[in-house]
DNA sequence: CACCCTCATGTTTACGCAAACATCACACCA
DNA sequence: TGGTGTGATGTTTGCGTAAACATGAGGGTG
């Protein structure tokens, strides 16, 4: 900066003013400074800037994995929105969903240059690790039921599941089987609860849930179990990938979809439209989730508030070819 | 820090020494300082640290999207390895693969607190934008042919494609059709070139390529075109998602896989094992790519060198149920 | 024509930390 | 017993920036 100032024949403060777009710099001076900057390849040092300003203009995102579609799409949306607001994103992956893992990440986060954190995971893992968030670091949580203690942004899991199950019942199925995700997952539990509630409210039999772990393979295994049950005519899967596995299992066992069995998923990943048959599924608006997260976090940062509460992002059912009335021979 | 020093009854320098694990602090003093830190909730300010040390311990990752499996898995691996080395990851998404987009990201990067950058995209987009990388910011590139100018880490695209095509020829197919990715993609072009070369070397007819854009939908469209050609008995798709689309198209047109047509993919995404039928595909070792990227970048940062060259990460063919000899009626 | 006000620009300072150097106490040896 | 060395701790300084305050030139007004 001093070099630029010297070359432009001004003081370093004037260089600073130009760099920050201050108004009270005469056009000719501004141009000289910009010239000098260009010539010397000057770039402001963000460490010094952050030190002086007391903020990093950076948001940390803490998560277990990018491997699930939901996470990676949420992160992408967060990154896009953050960039839009002039914030950078720092990724903090936690190796395993263990207490130690989470704690480790947050210890690092404490030293990390972030103004706030978005947590994409179950909040009970934070609690279990007895985490005290570094003071001054604001938090927004995704995929959690901690709306009473933290600001939470989430897809409206319950409503999405309700839509899918009701859709199947309305097609005329007696009941709907469910392939659920891991028990630790809040989204998974919420979807299962909504599924059960709809069935109970409609006075239907509630079949035992088939437990999966979000992967297509676990869906396949669940599907094999269900394929053996001739009364099973409708299956609601907690995500699209498990639905893919279910489709494969049904196919291998000679049960046609949707003629013999209807299958619905959750997420609406791009591939779902190309499954065999194209999958009826619940569409999640990840972009909106990302937007709300960043907006909520920046509000907190700017106003130094922390208001617990949950923002729910609506879902929509996308009807494709994997659901039909029972006994439909097409 | 001054507060901690006061409370512990030592100088701030001693606090600094404790915080950085220096040796020459007597145990009793160290404990006092740690106590004071705990009590006051002290955590080092990373901006000041970075300013003093002249490094950020942060790596920037610049990319177009996390939506493709390859990218998100590479990023995940990079993040894991970086964390292992005590580095944080800053994500810089570029909205569109246009010159402006890339330039914008790098301008921001210049101000960003990073010691180095990993670029997950075509290097010609950097060139097209006439980018001068900020001095002092080291670069490693993924998915590019710029090995003569930048250090490049990449999956061995050519060998992977060769394995897939040879596998199909060895099964007895006269030739192999190809569904390729976008022309701007280096991986895509490299896979296509290897496909063509294997066919030519074997003296086979080289059918026209079917152009896709990595999505399952584009694969579906390509598949519809190929399904109409009765001489087409083997299809090599440049990624698994397009293969998914091809499978759907073949299915809809009544062409059985692998009895009538064999299909192979590339990537080995987890879902591929659950396709109908389970997909024969080329396995990419994304974790290794991430490891090599970080390692290479840190080497550069630490030794202030920049050695162009390409590190190729080997691939393996995973044979599943989507390929078989031609005319195989199972 | 003197005064004051405004606006462009310069000077000083502090942000929090850690390297470099300075100091001091104590132990050991001749 | 004085000298010397060693290791623990304190003091000074500067990293690059921007806020706060200082300066000074020019223009307008009575």
TrEMBL record, chains A, B:
Residues 1-53 form the HTH lacI-type domain. One of its GO terms (molecular function) is DNA binding. InterPro entries: HTH_LacI (IPR000843), LacI/GalR-like_sensor (IPR046335), Lambda_DNA-bd_dom_sf (IPR010982), Peripla_BP_I (IPR028082). It comes from the Bacteria. Pfam families: LacI, Peripla_BP_3. Keywords: DNA-binding, Transcription, Transcription regulation. This is LacI family DNA-binding transcriptional regulator.
């Amino acid at each position: 900066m001093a070099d630029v100032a010297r070359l432009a024949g001004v003081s370093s403060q004037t260089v600073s003013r130009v760099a920050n777009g201050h108004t009270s710099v005469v056009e000719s001076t501004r141009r000289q400074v910009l010239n000098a900057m260009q010539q010397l390849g000057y770039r402001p040092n963000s460490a010094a800037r952050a030190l002086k300003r007391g903020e990093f203009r950076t948001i940390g995102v803490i998560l277990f994995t990018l491997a699930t579609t939901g996470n990676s799409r949420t992160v992408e949306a967060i990154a896009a929105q953050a960039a839009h607001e002039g914030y950078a994103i720092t990724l903090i992956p936690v190796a395993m969903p263990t207490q130690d893992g989470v704690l480790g990440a947050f210890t690092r986060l404490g030293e990390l240059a972030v103004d706030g954190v978005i947590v994409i995971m179950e909040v009970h893992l934070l609690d279990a690790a007895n985490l005290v968030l570094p003071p001054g670091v604001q938090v927004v949580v995704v995929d959690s039921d901690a709306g009473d203690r933290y600001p939470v942004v989430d897809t409206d899991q319950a409503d999405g599941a309700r839509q899918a199950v009701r859709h199947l019942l309305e097609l005329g199925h007696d009941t709907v089987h469910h392939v659920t995700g891991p028990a630790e997952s809040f989204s998974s539990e919420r979807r299962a609860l909504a599924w059960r509630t709809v069935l109970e409210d409609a006075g239907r039999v509630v079949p035992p849930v088939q437990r999966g772990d979000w992967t297509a393979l676990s869906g396949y295994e669940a599907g094999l179990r269900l394929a053996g049950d001739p009364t099973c005519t409708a299956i609601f899967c907690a995500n699209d990938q498990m639905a893919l596995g279910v489709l494969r299992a049904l196919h291998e066992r000679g049960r046609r979809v949707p003629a013999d069995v209807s299958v619905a998923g959750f997420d609406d990943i791009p591939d779902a439209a190309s499954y065999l048959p194209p999958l009826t599924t619940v569409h999640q608006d990840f972009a909106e989730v990302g937007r709300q997260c960043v907006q909520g976090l920046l509000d907190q940062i700017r106003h130094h508030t922390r208001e617990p509460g949950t923002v729910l992002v609506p879902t929509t059912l996308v009807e494709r070819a994997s659901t039909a009335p029972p006994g439909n021979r097409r």
